[in-house]
Design brief:
Number of helices: 6
Number of strands: 5
Strand order of the largest sheet: 2-4-5
Low-confidence stretches: none
Largest sheet: 3 strands, antiparallel
Order of helices and strands: HHHHHEHEEEE
Mean pLDDT: 86
Structural class: alpha+beta
């Protein structure tokens, strides 16, 4: 019973050490990417949240923390305790490798912190930096000169973006649609879509 309690303690310590390493990695790497971000773009798109950077790298680099924790634990006083919890440690490490891989490949519809418009299709003339300058009452010429040509221009609206640009994953995309009434901007739909 005493030996099992020691093994359980070792496993819990593995979890705590791994979580702390992951938190430090997520915060430090996330802070670096946050500092290097295209501030004007993320502010124009309304996605300038530090927590997204930390969470992305906490998940993305998690396997490093768990592997480091396993190495630390195996080299510690607990190395002679056998392998009762080793399968759980291996499952955690494999999961921490697969989770960011799945997130990258399938997107899980999260925003991509290093390229917010990675899955947003738009015209080559599209200028997202000027989105905050759009105002009701502008005419179509003013809108086009400000943010570029729309992808589609059905009756009384300009559709600037659509989903599906990214060929290898499915990320959140940015929707921008401008409705006109009597030739003037009447409604601006500017939002992130997670579908």
């Amino acid at each position: 019973m005493k030996r099992f309690a020691k093994k359980l303690c070792a496993f819990l310590l593995f979890l705590v050490i791994g979580a702390l390493i992951n938190l430090v990695l997520g915060c430090s790497v996330g802070a670096v990417f946050y500092a290097l971000r295209d501030k004007a773009l993320v502010e124009a798109l309304g996605c300038d949240e530090f927590s997204e950077y930390v969470i992305s790298f906490f998940i993305g680099l998690g396997f490093i923390g768990w592997i480091a924790s396993a190495v630390i634990m195996r080299k510690s006083l607990f190395e002679g305790l056998g392998f009762v919890f080793l399968p759980l440690e291996i499952v955690i490490i494999i999961f921490s490798v697969l989770l960011p891989l799945c997130e990258f490949v399938w997107g899980f519809e999260g925003r991509c912190v290093y390229n917010p418009l990675i899955d947003t299709e738009c015209d080559s003339s599209f200028n997202p930096y000027n989105i905050p300058k759009l105002k009701p009452g502008m005419d179509k010429v003013e809108v086009v000169s400000l943010i570029g040509a729309p992808l589609y221009a059905p009756d009384n609206s300009f559709e600037y973006t659509r989903d599906g640009k990214c060929s290898f994953g499915d990320f959140a995309w940015y929707e921008l649609c401008i409705d006109f009434e009597n030739g003037k901007v009447s409604k601006i739909t500017s939002r992130w879509v997670y579908d």
